[in-house]
Structures are given as structure tokens and as C-alpha cells.
From TrEMBL:
Entry-linked InterPro entries: DUF3459, GH, GH13_cat_dom, O16G_dom_2
Name of this chain's protein: Glycoside hydrolase family 13 protein
SMART domains from the UniProt entry: Aamy
Domain of life of the source: Bacteria
Key words, A-Z: Glycosidase, Hydrolase
Family: Belongs to the glycosyl hydrolase 13 family.
Amino acid sequence: MDTHRWWRDAVIYQVYVRSFLDSTGDGIGDLAGVRAGLPYLKKLGVDGIWLSPFYPSPQHDHGYDVADYRDVDPVFGDLAEFDLLVGAARRLGVKVLLDIVPNHCSSEHPWFREALAAPPGSPQRARFHFADGRGPGGAEPPNNWHAMFGGPAWTRVTEPDGRAGQWYLHMFTPEQPDWNWRNPEIAADFDRTLRFWLDRGADGFRIDVAAGLFKHPELPDSPDPEADARTRDSVNPLAWSQPEVHEVWRHWRAVCEEYTRRDGQERLLVGEVSVPTAREHARYVRPDELHQAFFFDLLGAPWNADAFRKVISEAMQDIAGTGSTVTWVLNNHDQVRTVTRYGEPTPQGSGLGTARARAAALLMLALPGAAYVYQGEELGLPEVVDLPDDVLTDPIFRRTGSRARIRDGCRVPLPWSGQASPFGFTSGAEGAAPWLPQPEWFAEHATDRALADTRSFWHLYRDGLQLRASLPQLGEGTLSWLETTPDVLAFVRADDLVCAVNFGTAPVPAPASGTPLLASGPCPPGVLPGSTAAWWISGS
């Protein structure tokens, strides 16, 4: 892999730190646990890791409410432990990306506390979106926007003299006030944050809510106030994807390139960009902006050959055409896991969901560009759909009282070994219980069992990653679609490497013959079983 352009076809493993591996016995994963797991990830074959936020935080949204952007929360370790992690990763040749949260901070951030203590119109309040309310006594919010996690996007404050006062904007929860990026202090402070972590060896950043940051300067009413309440996608055009945001990414790209010039190692910016079309997505990955942005359309596509072909074709046309590469993803910490999403919503998933998830993984790894794998994906973990209400921590549940769209089920701590909880996740017999309960059936997906079974998800991912690294026609490049039967999606890459997926349930003739390389399930010669993907070198 070209170290200067390593990100273009990299496979990055998303580490949700609090659920990866606990080194202290408190039931919460930490940076030392990530360091201990690095040899496992190196053996799997990934090129880098993306760490979820580990900064000081009251954890109202598990670290996405940041109280200090330039330190480590004691629950996860300290800066010395971060340095050890980076050093260990460097020795193994594994890149380290950090999750940065520029749209909002914690209500416990010192600047927001200063804003609450300051009067209306003060410089301290100008760092956020404070506004007078509407109606008699200013008792109604300044506009009709809804928060992404439910309820209004505004909270009223009590002024220092005890009177009901202004309102502040939070597009997620009241504990996450939005920064006012029209204030130059914000850009300057994030510049300091980028350099702080780059100086400590970070290889780049995953950017949370990368289409956010700027709001319409007049904060007018939305023509569709229920939009953000219906979906987590960024659909309020007054609060998302304002044109000024692109200047931020141009500046951040320039900062990263400054560091690249020092040692030739390119630093990566990958954005969480939720926009309606691939064409709009492409605006974020122009040559002087973000290197990459997650393409969520594949994750959101129904299990259907036509749907997958449509989103892949649009991405290749609109995103790859910018000179960037598409950043494919099937799972992450906000979405129902593929094993459950593609099958029946039973506590342990279903055989159909498992087969489809295996096939989708092989398809993703065959596509041109980069891929991100969410922890536990390589173990075939289903979603934990039956967590009791009293253990749920997702602010969506707390804000709405509804289990719809909650994210705890994909964040249950990983099973590493053994037959019972904590499955090796937390150290010591006297360790605290994992922060979310693990179901008994996690034993079937434990890492030690997966490594011992050559038919497991883990071996499918490892073999796919090894082939991807060894075959120059995978990663970079283009694809050409092949003529197939209606339920089959097939394409050819350079040097006649073919990937085919049968989205149906009945076996069909394989669309080409040749040298088999890898299949997601049993695949007789000349036959492509239902819900199966296969790679081979065409004999034509």
C-alpha cells in the first residue's frame, strides 16, 4: 500500500472504546484494552482503527458530548496511555484515527458554563446559538426546529439573576449545545485541537456531523419542522449542509497537508456526511476538502440486487469522479447490525440474515475504494434486540420513551472467550458487570470460538482482507457490470476478477467460470447458491 495515499483503499476497523475490551475491571472498555487488542486486529488484517470519543465527558451521549477536546476521560485512561496505544499501533503498522465532534460540545464544557453565567449579547454567548424566545415573555422557542434525538431543538436557560431567559440551540440533546461556527473563536480552538492530536501521532480524524456546523444566520422557521424528528439523516436545509461548511474542510485539509509535508505520511479526514444524494455527497470530497466521507446509501439499501446496483453505480459515478474513492460501510455504532437487519428480528438473528450479512461483507470488500468494519461485524454478531428498558442508555430512548431507532443493541460489549458473561471482556473474577448486559448466546460468537472455526465470519473477513491486500485489482480502480439473471448482481474488476452476489434464495448458475478464490458460503462449481457471494478469476 502506498503510504502517501494509504487511505484510498484502506480497511479501517471502528473501535467503540467502551465496548471493546476492559483492562481495569470496571465494566467499561478503555484505551489500554484497545492496546491489548491490537494484535488481534493486526491478525484480522485491517489497515487502521477509528476510536470513538474518549475525551472527558459526562457521557450523556457516550462521549459525543465533549467537555474537553484535548485530554482523556479517566474512565478510558490518560494521555500517557494514549501515547502507548499510538506507539503500539505504529509498531504494528496500524493507523489510528480519532473521532472529533465539531458540531456541538457538552453542556459541561467550560465555555458553555461561561455562557450560562454571562448576560445576553455577551461574547461568551456568541460562541453558541443563544436567542430570545417568541411569544409573551419569550416563552416559546426561537424557531420550530426539532432535535435529531427527539423534542424541540431549543432549551430555555435561567439567567444569573434567576429570571427565565434566552434559549440555546442543540440539534441533538440539551446536554449538547451547538457551537456557533460563525464566531472565529470556534475555528481557532478546533485548529488547536487538531494540532494537539496530530502532534501526538494521530493519523487523522473521523468527523462527527460533518454536514452540520453552520446554521442559517437568521435561524428562520423550517418549512418541514417534523423532518429531523422523522429521520436521523440530515434533512433540515436550514441546519445542515450550509455552504460555509466547505471552508472549514478546506482549512482542515490544509492543516493535514502541512503535517504530511513533514514526513510524507498523509493524514486522513473522513466525514460523517448525511446528505440525500451521492452528487451532494461528492461536494464534500473535492480535492481540497475531506479525503473521504462515509457513503451510507449502501448501509441503507434493502436486500435487493437492483437497489444495491443503483447505489453502487451512483457512488462510482458521482463520488469516485471527484478523484476521491468511495468509503463503503455496512455497520456502525448507530445502526442495526446486518445479521439482524437482513433477516428476522429474533434475539439471536436468523440463518437468512447471517447468510446475507456474509454475502454483503464479501461484496463490500470487492468494491473499489475504502471500507470501514464495525467491531463485532467480523464475529457475525446480531443486534441485541431484547435489552430491558432499565438498562438502556441511548439518549434517543430517554428523550422519546420509544425503542424505535435506539442504538444500545449494537453497542453491547464484545465477547472474547468463555461460555458466560463477561465473556473475557472485563478483567478479573471480581470485575464489574459489563456496562450493557451480554446475552447468553454471545458465547456462540466469542472471538476464541471464531478463530478456531475456519467457517466462521472471522475467517471470511480475514481471508477477504488478505486477498484484498494481495490482489492489485481490489481497492483502487473501477468496475464493469455483467449481464446476469434478475436476482444476481455481478461485476468484474481489473485482471478479470469477478464478484457475484445471489440476492435470491434459490441457487442459480454462476455468471462466469474460472478460478474460485473465496465464497461467503458453500459454493459448488458453476452454481451460486441463494444469499451467497463469491470471488473468482474469470476463465474467459
